[in-house]
Recover the amino acids of this structure.
């Protein structure tokens, strides 16, 4: 693959005297749909939060194209990595347009004035997420799927090289899940951004990802293409659930079926 | 929220209303000066020109008493309304304002404590009062930050800390009053709020500090919008949350404390004005700040005029007027808000 959008080297991190990461090492290749998976508490969200520099500095380093993560100015970091949080809900009556416009902050000057170029990019982002018809509606009035697409539109308006998403579809119905993941896949295919996404649905992971990073208890247990990582034995070991993997014809991804009973 | 294209019309209407209220405030009072005379006196300038339309005494009342008083009320209104708006965004809580958080009490406490120790009052110059007020307010802000910072900083924790501090500071000020009854009157003045002692020199200090505190906030309205999101989102959008928050806290605390130093604790303006204006502008801080500036001035000049005229000869503390007007209106707003949202 191409150069990396981020490299994690010897990341060591303890929270309340409990060691979560011990010399974690991985690389995020540019232009890929990267899924981070693993059971609850395996450190997926914590890893994202380190990439966003929300948590106090860990030991080890996170290297981005222009140097160490901790040397980045906040606005420069925002132009490299944007973020779609997990199930956030806005309590204020901003319009959809205003919310997406916030993504332009890291490109703007001191005065809170949006340039014509900003407006064009905001409209393009809304269009890409199929939201232009609700631009003037209040964000609080959107459905779950629309709201999630609005957050992705905000990330698009930010024009970052990487979009981080923390379980972007976990509270949506199957139709909306597929729609959002397809939109994200398009972004990668059209070389708009590299997508790094925490996901739970293994079938979605297998259908959309170029690279899968599987974690358990703060360690990376496997990384590679979906068909290499998502084997019956490994899933059963990591998740402690029996599964069947049903192969399909052609290039269709296999179906992973957990045994519910 | 009204349609965006109506905002300029409403804005202009508010400014016209402010001019009208200011003019009536200049005219109203026991001295019986007419509108025509008021306009002539203001037009004549500060130096006492002889005229056939007004007397020297009337000129003095307008230029030495009413004008500095009304302008002080305007500055205080702007400062409290904008500070309230900033605190509401900083703590992501619509109930936050300098009064509720205890910042105003902190400033008043600083002045009361210094007066108790004999540091200010009597022969000391005018600049000591705002300095001790700022120290008191900044100390309170610091205590709020430290007490609620150790725990994961939730808006509710911060607010409760402020309310608890408010109780403590009020109790301490009551103690000072009890221990030192000779100063009862002057401490009472800070706890109830009044523009009765306004003067051009005080207005100068107030205006300068207000400019220093409020003008930079005009350049931070985009950050204020983004601070309404969760912290992770705000950071990822590119706002240096910690330093921007600290800067905003220092700016608004500076402006508030100097206002309190000269005018005392005036509650509800910081809570009410941004609330009412948000109904017009929506949550975006650029229009909200402009409207809160005009609205704050308007509300305070109106409240002060009411405070000094409603009882005829004697005067009410303006803090009582703002509380009496503010509290019921706030309850109505709260009821409407709940109906709208859920």
């Amino acid at each position: 693959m191409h150069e990396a959008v981020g490299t994690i080297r010897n990341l060591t991190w303890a929270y309340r005297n409990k060691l979560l990461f011990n010399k974690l090492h991985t690389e995020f290749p540019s232009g890929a749909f990267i899924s981070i998976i693993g059971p609850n508490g395996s450190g997926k969200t914590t890893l994202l939060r380190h990439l966003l520099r929300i948590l106090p500095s860990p030991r080890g380093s996170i290297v981005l194209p222009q140097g160490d993560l901790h040397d980045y100015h906040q606005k420069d970091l925002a132009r490299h990595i944007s973020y779609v949080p997990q199930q956030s809900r806005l309590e204020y009556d901003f319009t959809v347009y205003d919310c997406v416009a916030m993504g332009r902050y890291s490109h703007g000057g001191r005065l809170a004035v949006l340039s014509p170029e900003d407006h064009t990019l905001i409209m393009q982002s809304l269009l890409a997420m199929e939201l232009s018809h609700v631009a003037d509606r209040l964000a609080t009035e959107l459905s779950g799927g629309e709201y999630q697409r609005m957050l992705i539109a905000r990330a698009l308006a930010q024009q970052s090289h990487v979009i981080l998403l923390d379980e972007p579809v976990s509270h949506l119905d199957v139709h909306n899940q597929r729609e959002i993941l397809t939109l994200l896949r398009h972004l990668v295919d059209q070389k708009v951004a590299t997508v790094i996404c925490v996901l739970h649905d293994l079938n979605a992971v297998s259908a959309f990802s170029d690279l899968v990073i599987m974690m358990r208890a703060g360690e990376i247990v496997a990384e590679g293409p979906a068909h290499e990582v998502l084997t019956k034995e490994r899933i059963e070991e990591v998740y402690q659930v029996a599964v069947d993997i049903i192969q399909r014809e052609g290039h269709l991804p296999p179906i992973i079926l957990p045994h519910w009973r | 929220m009204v349609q965006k294209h109506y905002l300029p019309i409403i804005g202009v209407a508010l400014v016209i209303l402010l001019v009208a209220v200011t003019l009536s405030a200049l005219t109203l009072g026991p001295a019986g000066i007419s509108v025509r005379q008021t306009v002539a006196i203001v037009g004549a300038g500060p130096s006492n020109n002889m005229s056939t339309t007004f007397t020297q005494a009337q000129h003095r009342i307008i230029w030495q008493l009413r004008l500095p008083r009304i302008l002080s009320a305007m500055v205080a209104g702007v400062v409290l309304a904008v500070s309230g708006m900033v605190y509401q965004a900083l703590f992501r809580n619509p109930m936050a304002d300098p009064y509720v958080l205890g910042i105003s009490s902190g400033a008043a406490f600083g002045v009361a404590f210094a007066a108790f120790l004999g540091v200010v009052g009597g022969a000391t110059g005018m600049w000591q009062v705002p300095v001790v007020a700022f120290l008191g307010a900044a100390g309170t802000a610091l205590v709020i930050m430290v007490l609620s910072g150790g725990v994961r900083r939730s808006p509710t924790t911060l607010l409760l800390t402020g309310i608890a501090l408010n109780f403590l500071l009020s109790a301490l000020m009551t103690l000072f009053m009890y221990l030192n009854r000779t100063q009862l009157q002057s401490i009472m003045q800070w706890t109830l709020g009044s523009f009765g002692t306004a003067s051009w020199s005080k207005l100068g200090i107030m205006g300068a500090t207000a400019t220093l505190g409020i003008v930079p906030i005009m350049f931070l309205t985009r950050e204020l919008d983004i601070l309404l999101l969760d912290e992770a989102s705000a950071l990822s959008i590119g706002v240096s949350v910690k330093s921007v928050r600290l800067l905003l806290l220092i700016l608004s605390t500076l402006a508030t404390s100097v206002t309190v130093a000269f005018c005392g604790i005036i509650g509800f303006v910081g809570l009410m004005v941004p609330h009412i204006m948000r109904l017009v502008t929506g949550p975006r801080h650029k229009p909200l700040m402009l409207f809160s500036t005009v609205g704050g001035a308007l509300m305070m000049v109106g409240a002060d005029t009411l405070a000094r005229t409603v009882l005829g000869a004697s005067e009410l503390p303006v803090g009582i007027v703002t509380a009496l007007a503010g509290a019921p209106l706030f309850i109505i707003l709260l009821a409407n808000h709940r109906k709208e949202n859920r």
User: Anything to note?
Assistant: The domain at 20-26+65-336 of chain B is CATH 1.10.3470.10 (ABC transporter involved in vitamin B12 uptake, BtuC).
